[in-house]
Write a structure and sequence with these properties.
Layout lengths: L1 H16 L2 E8 L3 H11 L4 H9 L5 H20 L8 E10 L3 E6 L5 E6 L2 E9 H6 L1
Antiparallel strand pairs: 1-5, 2-5, 3-4
Amino acid sequence: MGARKKISAEKRKEALKTMYFAKLRNVPSSPRKMRLVADMIRGMEVNRALGVLKFSSKAASSKVEKLLRSAIANWETKNERKAEDGELYVTKIFVDEGVTLKRMRPAPQGRGYRIRKRSNHVTLFVDSKNTNDKN
């Protein structure tokens, strides 16, 4: 059984070499707020998505914009060339729940109200349109 797990890990490493992504971990905002921003740019062309994020009033959009720039840079590094206009698209973006910090706030009559400070992890995949047509 150990050999079987090793083979699947090797396949996963090979598959990751052809994927272009960036991860943002432990962002101190709730996943629900971050998903609103992620939904805005899902499936968009990257230059248009950068414009949408730049002029969005959401606080999380600046973090996603930086993440998108990182994913584009990762694509350019792996392909050893600059991305052309209209070539790259946000293929997948998802937000997972991170660690929740539990805090107490003083409340009336000696009680304590629980405060949950949520965090999230964002994963963003970019790829060119012609690669998406093959799948």
